[in-house]
Amino acid sequence: MSSPLLAATGLVTQVGKAGLRAVDNVDIHLWAGEVLGIVGESGSGKTTLARTLLGQQQESAGEICLHQKRVSGVEPRRARAARRVIQYVHQDQAAALDPWWRIGNTLHETLRVSGVRNSDERKERIEQMLKAVGLHTGVLERYPHELSGGQIRRIGLARILSLRPEIVILDEPTAGLDLSVQANVLRLFKDMQAQFNLSYIMVSHDLSVVRLMCDRVAVMYLGKIVEVAPSQQLFESPAHPYTRSMLGAAPRVDPERQVQSSTLNGDPPSLMKTPDGCRFRTRCDHATDACSRHVPELETVSGEHSVACLRWRDLTSFNLTRSH
Ligand SMILES: Nc1ncnc2c1ncn2[C@@H]1O[C@H](COP(=O)(O)OP(=O)(O)OP(=O)(O)O)[C@@H](O)[C@H]1O
Ligand code: SF4
Ligand SMILES: [Mg+2]
Hints:
Elements: E1 6-15, E2 20-30, E3 35-39, H1 46-54, E4 61-66, E5 69-70, H2 76-82, E6 86-89, H3 93-96, H4 103-113, H5 119-132, H6 149-161, E7 167-171, H7 179-196, E8 199-203, H8 207-213, E9 216-221, E10 224-230, H9 231-236, H10 241-249, H11 289-293, E11 299-302, E12 305-307, H12 312-322
Parallel strand pairs: 3-8, 3-9, 6-7, 7-8
Antiparallel strand pairs: 1-2, 1-4, 4-5, 9-10, 10-12, 11-12
Helix pairs in contact: 4-5, 5-6, 6-7
Bound molecules: adenosine-5'-triphosphate, iron/sulfur cluster and magnesium ion (MG).
């Protein structure tokens, strides 16, 4: 069997002075050519996981392998250098661009910092990428505030693609865009994926975008992956109560196909007060005493579908009987 392009095992990332575990013992892999979605409520650790995979944030434990070579356990500068083929499209693209710099200067600087010294080569790469993302070279003279949200996304992608990545992490790639612009931007991601042989990790709140774009989806809750499955399986037969609630709460999921679900109760607890046992138990309608005593590990449901819930077997059969 082939090996994943990127694989993390037992990944822990601690944040802030208190050393809270924003990513807590995560196993995740990405196959070449795949689009992997990461979903979960605000604060569940999606960006921290993305930044750790990227090497921008140092892991406290665990291992990351790229092309089957270990790229973790080294100081941040070397970690990032070893992972140059992984690039990140920031959650807030506008903030990632310097407001006082013309777009052309920012694009040149990105390439210069990454080691492309020859300005003709930079110019050629930039023009090639602008063309690929459907922008005219006239944008090079503009400042960020003179561009639309859709144009900013295109610039963000052109900038990253000029670095010739293999893996692109897209953090909330459609946040703040109108629906029609979203559709264009998503089509652009698909086109670029085919044209440049990319694999994507797509972090998003928007389940309809994830369903449309992703081959496989991982669901995070308070720093842990609670379910991971091929996209179709996750949306049609979710096994974790959190995933079910999330799908139940999502406005644009097809009601015909939806399994029995409740919507989410309240907000997640803070990372400072994570419940013992299963972290979801304070919001779970199916919690029992055992759920406060045991931490559920990911178990295989079938094929590439895994879930971390002590009661997934009971709940799956409960659903089958209820829906007939
Ligand atoms: N540098 C930091 N210092 C303290 N806490 C942090 C730091 N970075 C992240 N956190 C905390 O870690 C948790 C995970 O944050 P993260 O940004 O990864 O979540 P997220 O899933 O990306 O959320 P969102 O959907 O809002 O972008 C949050 O509770 C956040 O407050
Ligand atoms: S382990 Fe228990 S509390 Fe956690 S999701 Fe499953 S049923 Fe709910
Ligand atoms: Mg985030």
